[in-house]
Amino acid sequence: MTQEELAVNYIKLLPVIGGSFNNAPLYVSLGDDSEYYNLFADASQAEFQESLEALLQANGKTWSVSGYLENRSTILSRFPQMVAEERFYHLGIDINLPWGTKLYAPNDCEVAISKYEAGMGNYGGVTVLRFQNKKIYYILFGHLNPDELPRIGTIVKKGDVFAQLGDMSQNGNWYYHTHLQILTPKAYDGGWAGKGYCKESDLPIIIQFCPDPFEYL
Prior knowledge:
Blueprint: H1 3-9, H2 14-17, E1 26-27, H3 37-40, H4 45-58, E2 64-66, H5 73-76, H6 80-85, E3 87-90, E4 93-96, E5 102-104, E6 109-117, E7 124-132, E8 136-144, E9 155-156, E10 161-164, E11 178-183, H7 185-189, E12 197-199
Parallel strand pairs: 1-2
Antiparallel strand pairs: 2-4, 3-12, 4-11, 5-10, 6-7, 6-9, 7-8, 8-11
């Protein structure tokens, strides 16, 4: 992703995050080749949150987005399981917003998964919504407030609030954001709702499981 591509596509995110963030976001890659590498490479999540807020203020922005299929081996090197499995390629987009920001259903849907994943580096609160337009697909939202999650089986109408971003005590100890990931039925049935990253060897087939979110929103 580039800043130019995000400037064209970000409007697809507005139904999810509401009208308070209708200005174009900043693209902040968390990949190993990021121009902002020095902000996160050796920083704690709290330190990166401060740096991100300062960066947004300096650029006259209120929110940012981090991209699909970024190679994040640097920030994931602190998690032994990710290193052992060599899963470094980001399968969603991160929408970086203040904690407590409400999330809205972009279309009518059903809550398929709603739970709390404890532990540093995990999702914290996580919800998966099931959509059926011309075809069935799922959208996973991670790093949510576990006290504001919907119940499994709930029917959520387009435009309804279904969740809120969590703080660092609720979201797996990450900076403030939600991880938005598309899951095809093949991915959902195959357990990919528990995988936010893939291996390099998965890249040739990854579109069958977790395609680019901007192609579905």
